[in-house]
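Dear Dr. H.,

I hope your travels went smoothly. While you were away I took the liberty of generating a structure for the chain from your last submission, since the lab meeting agenda had it listed for discussion. I wanted you to have the full record in hand beforehand rather than looking at slides cold. The sequence, exactly as received, is reproduced here:
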Amino acid sequence: MKKTLLTCAIALVGMASYGQIATYVLQPASVAGPLEFNMADDWGMLPDMSIPANRVQAMAVIVDDGTAADTLGCNPLVNGVDVAGKIAIVYRGSCQFGTKAYNAQQAGAVGVVIVNNAPGAPVGMAAGDDGPNVSVPVVMISQAGGALIHDEVVAGNVEMLIGSVQDMFPDNLSMKNARTLVPTMAARPALVSTADDNYMVQLGAWVYNFGSAAQSNVTLNATITSGGNPVYNETSSPNTINPGDSVFIALPDFNQSSGYSGRYELAYTADLGAADQFPDDNTYTTSASFDSLLSYSPLDGTGLPEQIAFFRPSDPFQSYGICAYFSSPHASRLRADGIYAAALRGSSANIAGQVLNAGIFEAEGTFTQSGIDITAASEIMTGEFAYTDSLQAGEVVYIPFFEETVLEDNKNYLFCVASSDATVYLGHTNSLNYDETGIQTDQVSTFLHLDDTWSSGWNTGEVPALGVKMSSASVGINENNVVELTPYPNPTNSMISIPMAGQTGKATVQVMDTKGAKVLDRQVSVGGNNILSMDLGNLKSGLYTFHVTFESGARSSFRVSLAK
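The corresponding predicted structure, in token form, is as follows:
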């Protein structure tokens, strides 16, 4: 599925190379080496890792657009003679990324490096109006990277490369996160990660030889620490890898017979037995947490799913949702309380007033990476979060379910967060990849829910960054605020009556269809022995979920079958 990336207010993880696609300073020696960078998103020329000849290699020069803010490149360049045949250095700010790159290309630049104007990692770059006309590679480097090379660029001493570094060095191993075995969940409820759950972590990775020399002593090491203490440390036997070739190196499974608790850090290292001349992609690290959350996104320093990038589909939609899959033979130990997620609106629009909907679906079908086919999905619980402050944009928020829901063993659940506003982008991570390992054929992770269609996720592998808050089912649900309401007749063909005896004050009645869409929302006043009558005649036949919230804090949920 194609996606749109929100770039105006997000941070992306900067990588020194995208699997041997690099932004690299060749000279002078004082600043030589890879720079942290991010590629333009789906515009400009994306260098091909498999075709080293496509890389762009040239001296670098800073642009001048003839204005007071000359290095921003927002106007046609006045130093085109200097830029022609060079890699143009442009600074972020004031105008669209595509416009900067297009102005540099029109002046003859063979590549464009945009320097971030804020500390931290490079951000994503949207095409804007002029981006579709750009045919040279465009990357962003960090503010620190720009400062590192600035003086040498001004002196005319910097030669750079954008593209593949394959065959540039004799000794050069590589690893990719999409070809590395990781735990099946980045955060897994501890209650279903016990000894009798027989949970284990498969370990191993593909290792690539992108150097020009054959390697005969390649090893893979994996270490796992818990609370700073080592709990696993294994190194493979030596392997031989010819130039341009790769090999999958398996390591022993990791298993704790006593169960799992807390946070575990996993680190892989590929070693060729000598100095690697491009070592920046020889390691890969990730984490797994075992507590109260279910998440396929690694948790940040606050214990919530990390939010690295924000996406929405590029095609028109009525409702767009991101979902996490869960099934366990011990699921009945758990109840689901709510979901953590994050969202932004495009063009820095105020997010106040926007609503995120949460839902739990029971699904039927095939759930393996080699065959995902959702034949039916019924929503069994919903929740809602309304943004009240624009400062919440991009911030992880908590969406409680209208009722805590005890799960059942061996059922397939999809926990989803959705928006019906086309300007809303939902949070994701790209620091790991479950769907493109080519190794774990039984790995099921996350789904997208676009209107009536379910899909297994983005074709570029980003993972929805939502976290389901779980509690122990044995603790029980707080019944003090839950009231029983019994509507009649049920099923009905039109009218429904809901006795409200014992309740007073204002109440909100929301009605959701099986897709989680809100079809009715009423404010009512109750008191005495009031009976609320509702006409459902405008709704289609089907099963509807009612959520009633009283001013006192009491609440009730029930289902009504409408048969016409």
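Two observations you may find useful: Residues 6-18 have pLDDT under 50 and may be disordered. The chain has four domains: 21-164, 173-291, 301-475, 495-562.

With kind regards,
E. W.
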